[in-house]
């Protein structure tokens, strides 16, 4: 059984894959290695973890406007997430995702942290603003 959640599409597209859930904001500028997709920010919840090919769920970005270019570079080098789900997407993440073609949905009708866990299979339809969650024990 899957859960379908309506949200607001930010960067159009479709992607699916395994969820990586992070309750901390992510600072892409100086916090993520664009060559391998590893989070490098010291003491971050995802430090030393890869965001490559994941459906990345986090509240919002943080840091300077250079983060937009890092998000774009992650897409260009194919080391970034397949899609992003935010509580609220700020302009830094939105611009980088749009430039890089990374689907983004935010403002889901339920808190994604309440229904999505690491390892769940997630389908993101960022054209219609639909997120479908298949719990990992049902995949």
TrEMBL record:
One of its GO terms (biological process) is isoprenoid biosynthetic process. Signal peptide: none annotated. InterPro entries: PMDh-S-like (IPR012016), PMDh-S-like_dom (IPR002840), PMDh_S (IPR020794). Keywords: Isoprene biosynthesis, Lyase. GO terms for molecular function: lyase activity. It holds the Pfam family AcnX_swivel_put. Residues 28-105 form the Phosphomevalonate dehydratase small subunit-like domain. It comes from the Bacteria. It comes from Desulfofundulus thermobenzoicus. This is DUF126 domain-containing protein.
């Amino acid at each position: 059984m899957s859960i379908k959640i309506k949200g607001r599409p930010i960067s159009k597209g479709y992607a699916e894959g395994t969820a990586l859930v992070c309750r901390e904001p992510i600072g892409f500028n100086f916090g993520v290695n664009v060559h391998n997709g590893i989070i490098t920010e010291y003491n971050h919840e995802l430090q030393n973890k890869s965001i490559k090919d994941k459906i990345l769920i986090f509240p919002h970005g943080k840091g300077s406007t250079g983060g937009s270019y890092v998000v774009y570079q992650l897409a260009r080098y194919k080391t970034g997430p397949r899609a992003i789900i935010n509580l609220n997407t700020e302009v830094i993440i939105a611009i980088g995702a749009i430039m890089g073609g990374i689907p983004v949905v935010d403002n889901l009708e339920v808190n994604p942290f309440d229904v999505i866990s690491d390892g769940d299979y997630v389908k993101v339809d960022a054209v219609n603003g639909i997120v479908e969650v298949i719990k990992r024990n049902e995949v």
